[in-house]
Design a protein that fits this description.
The chain is built from 15 helices and 8 strands. It is α/β, with parallel strands linked by helices and 376 residues long. Helix 1 packs across helix 9, helix 1 crosses helix 10 and helix 8 runs parallel beside helix 10. The radius of gyration is 20 Å and the shape is globular.
Length: 376
């Protein structure tokens, strides 16, 4: 298989690398969101794997515990954990990110108490705050130190400064290479579609970083051999997108997704960890000050991130794909649309979208998208 096909396979078979690691006698740490530093997990000698949902899976187990106001992708992740699809995960880190993710810490603890027959990993809450103030920076640094101590407890050995440094260099190299991929998406002609980009970026969260870096280097060297991509250049903003379905629908309508503001897309590779004499402090700084997610304050950062991303990617328009119950995303979208209008960038707001799309949902989406593209 060529480098892209290998990354594509790991994106599809998301437990493949982690299970291989587990079979070798080593341990796996699962984590939610991009608020958890992979650098520290790697430095401790664990395999970090990001927890994701499955739009084709049921949610019957999660429905017993989670309120109906949970976002579909969060409900799906909760259901997969309860159904023991993540039974290869030894430890699970839950950050204080969106409210529904944060609440999973309490819910999983509750399930452990009343249904001990369900095999669940040991759970750790990483408490993070969502502003950029100096005092918040000090708080987050202390929480990163606590996380380091917890990882040492799990591994039974000290995390050395050199191991942290090596992990930081590996993760920074991954971000640098993914930035090169982002530039290739912005180029004209474009040779990487949105669906391809999601697989390239996402596979980094499911396989060892060093191996992913080698694949990225090979892919970038040979990207000119890929066919040119055509279509109306779009920037996508909205709810987390841990699968390709929405992009597949978009690009089947004649669009080309050249960039996005999404933690499963371009936002994952933004911002490097500064190499310094205090790497824990540098890691804390990166995760506090990186490209903001909808939980960050002030709102103007999110608005600027959206508008600047659309302009830099030379997008003709922006599409907002906002899931039902994703209140954080709903809060910011009107301001983003208003700012885009000020830059003469048209947009389409797709409200209350479902995580699991039925054929009828897909058909309604195609109709709305084609009507919008026809106005450009």
């Amino acid at each position: 298989m060529n480098p892209f096909e290998i990354m594509q396979n790991y994106y599809k078979e998301r437990d493949l690398a982690a299970k291989e690691w587990k079979q070798s006698g080593k341990k796996v740490v699962g984590y939610f969101c991009t608020q958890v530093p992979e650098e520290l997990i790697l430095a401790a000698g664990f395999f970090p794997v990001r927890i994701s949902g499955d739009p084709n899976d049921k949610s019957d187990l999660a429905d017993k515990y989670a309120p109906p106001s949970y976002e579909g992708f969060v409900r799906s992740m909760f259901n997969l954990i309860l159904s023991q699809k993540y039974d290869f995960v030894d430890y699970l880190i839950i950050p204080h990110s969106r409210d529904s993710i944060h609440t999973l810490h309490a819910l999983l603890g509750f399930v452990k108490e009343i249904e001990p027959e369900i095999k669940l990993p040991e759970i750790y809450l990483l408490d993070t705050l969502h502003t950029r103030s100096y005092l918040v920076g000090l708080y987050i640094k202390d929480r990163m130190t606590d996380l380091k101590n917890q990882l040492e407890g799990w591994s039974g050995k000290k995390i050395t400064e050199e191991s942290v440094r090596q992990a930081v260099l590996i993760c920074n190299a991954n971000r640098m290479l993914l930035n090169e991929v982002a530039k290739l998406r912005n180029s004209e002609p474009c040779r990487i579609s949105g669906t391809e980009a999601l697989q390239i970026i996402g596979s980094s969260m499911f396989m060892l970083k060093e191996e992913h870096n080698n694949l990225l280097r090979q892919f970038i060297e040979n990207v000119e051999s890929m066919p040119e991509k055509t279509g109306v250049r779009l920037f996508v903003e909205g709810s987390p997108m841990d699968n390709m379905k929405f992009y597949e629908v978009l690009e089947s309508c004649g669009a080309l997704v050249v960039a996005e503001d999404n933690c499963w897309g371009n936002r994952y590779k933004d911002d490097f960890v500064k190499i310094s004499s205090n790497l824990i402090e540098s890691i804390a700084e990166r995760y506090q000050l990186k490209s903001p997610c909808p939980r960050n304050f002030p709102l103007t950062m999110r608005v600027d991130n959206c508008v600047n991303g659309a302009i830099e990617s030379k997008a003709k328009a922006v599409i907002f794909n906002v899931h039902e119950y994703d209140y954080a995303q709903t809060w910011e979208t009107p301001e983003e649309i208003s700012s885009l209008q000020g830059k003469n960038i048209p947009s389409l707001w797709l409200k209350k979208q479902q995580y699991s799309l039925t054929p009828e949902d897909e058909e309604a989406l195609r109709k709305s998208i084609k009507q919008f593209l026809g106005t450009l």
